[in-house]
Amino acid sequence: AGKTNAQILYDALVAQAKCSPRGPTCCAKCNNGGYHYMICYPEKCVPEVMGFFRFRFDMHSKVYQHKTTTAGAAMIVDILRKADPYYVISAGAGGDEQQYSISSAVINQDAFLTLKDTIIEDIKNSTSR
Q1: What 3-state DSSP class applies to 72?
Q2: Which of these ranges, 50-54, 73-77, 80-84, has the smallest mean pLDDT?
Q3: What is the pTM of this model?
């Protein structure tokens, strides 16, 4: 059985090691094989670690950075920007309640914690402009 992502991350060590002077493992910082802090894994973990990072690379190239995903994210940002002046978040206790816009909710913990994944649906169902 393979290791879980958490186990792979737990096995990681930070060590100062010599960079390979040439080839695919040469870093962009140096071309002569200098010493750097690197994330290192025990040799027995290499196949699983390579699979872990290959999977992440594939997800970024096929899903996270896919043109449809990027377009959808841009539309959500547009919705949030347009709703910002109208969608009011109330936060505070008793007579100390204050009003926040979506973008200013980050300055108040209580206001920020009221923002949920349902915000787009909440905006759609709101009675404000």
Answers
A1: helix
A2: 50-54
A3: 0.59
